TrEMBL record:
<protein>
    <recommendedName>
        <fullName>N-acetyltransferase domain-containing protein</fullName>
    </recommendedName>
</protein>
<dbReference type="InterPro" id="IPR016181">
    <property type="entry name" value="Acyl_CoA_acyltransferase"/>
</dbReference>
<dbReference type="InterPro" id="IPR051908">
    <property type="entry name" value="Ribosomal_N-acetyltransferase"/>
</dbReference>
<dbReference type="GO" id="GO:1990189">
    <property type="term" value="F:protein N-terminal-serine acetyltransferase activity"/>
</dbReference>
<dbReference type="GO" id="GO:0008999">
    <property type="term" value="F:protein-N-terminal-alanine acetyltransferase activity"/>
</dbReference>
Amino acid sequence: MSPTEPQHDSNFCFAVPSVLENDRVRVTPFIPPIHLSTYFAASERHPEVYKYLPWGPFSSQEDLGHLVDKKFSKDPGYILFAVFDKADPAPDESKSLGVIAGVIAYGGLPVLVEIGAVIVLPQVQRKDLASNAVGLLLGYALKLPTHPCFRGLRLAQRLGFQMEEILRWDRVLPAWKETDVGNGKGEREGDPRAGWLGRDTVMLSLCWDDWENGGRDKVALLMQRGNNSPGVYAKPGIRRA
């Protein structure tokens, strides 16, 4: 580990590396004292990145920090990572991780590993960073020896995920979310949370046999070529056989 790499005392239920990287992106565990202020400053101008998520946008750094602490730091089934664009050097050369480009997470343990909370900031969205970040987490999760432990639907499908099911009414979105992000099924009369939208979630999976029978090569190709596209929120899961 180099002196510039952050130390991380993870509460996650499995060991995670301090760094996953290739020539384009660098993915490290999200450490609030190091990454929170930088990520908030970079993301607060783009509330649209939270459009399909059940939380955000955040009015303050403290609100974001509360979510990170409650959802990702204290829950051993989840861990948040910071994604850095290695092509864009950090303003502070003493922290040569690159400029923060977004976040990504592992979650859903112990039955399956989900790759979710894939947020890539608009200024770097056409630089293939989402494909590379997802590919790095896929490679680590599916690497032998195995353990049980995005951007959107089209990206997940290009990466080789297969449709499993649609989870109807999987999430409740806060009232301040735009009306076009719900499932379009309206509200139940008398619902105590009037104006809160329901969201359906597409569940996709990529299993170890998919990975070893061409999936690894497909992901590697996309990580080199890249082809990010916005789309319906997807919840890719890495199922254990």
